Each structure stands twice: as C-alpha cells, then as structure tokens.
C-alpha cells in the first residue's frame, strides 16, 4: 500500500491532463514550452483575471513576445483564448450543475452576473438560463427503439 500513493497521484495528473485536452482543446506537447505553460495557467486559473503581462512574467517572456508567440501558435490572441476558455467553463457549469448564474460569474472572475449574462448572450446567442434549459431538456431527435 505504501507505493500506491505516487501511482494514484500520477493517474490523477494524467486524468487531469486528458480532461484539459478534451474540454479545452489543449495539447501542449506540440507547442513551445512558454505557450504550453501559459495555456495551462489560463485553463487551471480560469477563475482569475489574468493579464498578458502577468502570464508573460510567470513564463519568462516579455509581454509582446508572449502575445506574438501565442497568436502564432494558437491562431488567436491571448485575450480571445482566455475568454473562449471562460465561455467553455461557463457552458460546462451551466449544463452540468445547478450553480446559480451569479456564482458562475464569480467563479469565472466576471464583474457581476449582469455583465456575465450580457457577455454570454453575445457569445452564444442565448442567456445563461436559456442555455441551461436547452441543455437539460430531453432531446427529441434521439432515436428510440420501437416497442413490440
């Protein structure tokens, strides 16, 4: 049993990495190390309001170098990627939890729930409540076997 904990920790890390890759499209093995670190930081700290300068400092690059390398590597800017990541996290929370919209806004580091709702609707065309309701409704397009 003593050797079990390091193995469990390794499995948890691998699972977390696979979950990040699946949910956020993160595949850091193909990116330059500073970009992989930056993306990992954005995903893991989705609740923080991270600036390009903060992240650049933490990965050891200048703000402008991080910005240009980020865009070149991912095809979109730092801010766009950060907000897209927050949007995916919000969609996941709305679809899978009963967490209040205000609490989701707080979790994602948004100013308030009103701003969050306007931003969410601008991005998806639906309010957070509409999105949640749509994701929770049974889908009528599923094929069900006919009963004899």
List the helices and strands and how they pair.
Blueprint (H helix, E strand, L loop, with lengths): L3 H21 L8 H12 L7 H8 L3 H12 L3 H19 L4 H7 L5 H12 L3 H9 L12
Helix pairs in contact: 2-3, 3-4, 5-8, 6-7
Structure, described:
The protein is mostly helical. It has helices at residues 4-24, 33-44, 52-59, 63-74, 78-96, 101-107, 113-124, 128-136. The chain has one domain: Homeodomain-like (Arc Repressor Mutant, subunit A).
Question: What are its keywords?
Answer:
Arc Repressor Mutant, subunit A; 8 helices; HTH araC/xylS-type domain-containing protein; transcription regulation
Rg of Cα set: 19 Å
Helix content: 55-70%
What's the number of domains? 1
Overall, the morphology is globular
Biggest beta sheet attributes = none
Given the structure, what is the number of helices? 8
Report the CATH superfamily.
Homeodomain-like
Strand content: under 5%
Helix/strand structural class: mainly alpha
CATH class group: Mainly Alpha
